[in-house]
């Protein structure tokens, strides 16, 4: 898992926000925090986090409005169960038992597991999109070059290999990519067709 993933935490509870940030940064994530809608939207647009984590305390009109904004921007987000995170020094000073710390650790561990699972899905999805774009481009390139090779075969009475070699030699002599030259030829043919109509 890429621990350099960027997370945006949004919560109006500053002590909780600080504690969660420390826990997630210790795990290796780059963490940005916002305590209100305006800061959250600004950081989301500026930093493009891999995941936005919203407090369930924001579910009111501000939280729903922020969730709509995140949906519109395409940013993945989750709501987390808001529970008070205790400060170890505060527990010691007040005499509270360590059960609160254990619950906090379990909550953070559970949140980290959820984050890692969602980020893996997100990264896998991004990788699939990149591969799909690569294949689409390769298919389009093949169609363009194939069309021009067909035109050269017809015009110069060449076989496919000779027509392809002619196109490749011309591209090399002009120090251009094969696809750019083929696209230029197709554009010129389209212009000629429009003129002759």
UniProtKB/TrEMBL annotation:
Protein name: ANTAR domain-containing protein
UniProt GO MF annotations: RNA binding
Superkingdom of origin organism: Bacteria
N-terminal signal peptide: none
Domain Response regulatory, chain residue ranges per copy: 6-136
Pfam families with a match to the protein in the record: ANTAR
GO aspect biological process, one term: phosphorelay signal transduction system
Domain ANTAR span(s) in chain numbering: 125-186
């Amino acid at each position: 898992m890429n621990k350099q993933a960027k997370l945006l935490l949004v919560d109006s509870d500053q002590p909780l926000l600080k504690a969660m940030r420390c826990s997630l940064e210790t795990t290796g994530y780059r963490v940005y925090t916002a305590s209100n809608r305006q800061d959250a939207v600004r950081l989301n647009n500026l930093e493009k986090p891999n995941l936005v984590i919203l407090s369930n305390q924001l579910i009111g009109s501000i939280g729903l409005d922020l969730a709509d904004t995140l949906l519109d921007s395409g940013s993945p987000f989750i709501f987390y169960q808001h529970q008070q995170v205790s400060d170890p020094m505060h527990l010691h000073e007040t005499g509270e038992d360590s059960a609160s710390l254990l619950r906090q650790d379990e909550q953070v561990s559970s949140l980290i597991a959820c984050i890692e699972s969602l980020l893996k899905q997100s990264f896998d999805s991004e990788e699939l999109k990149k591969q799909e774009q690569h294949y689409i481009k390769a298919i389009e390139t093949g169609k363009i070059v194939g069309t021009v090779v067909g035109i050269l075969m017809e015009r110069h009475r060449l076989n496919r290999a000779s027509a392809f070699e002619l196109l490749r030699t011309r591209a090399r002599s002009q120090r251009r990519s094969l696809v750019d030259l083929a696209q230029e030829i197709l554009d010129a043919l389209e212009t000629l067709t429009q003129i002759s109509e």
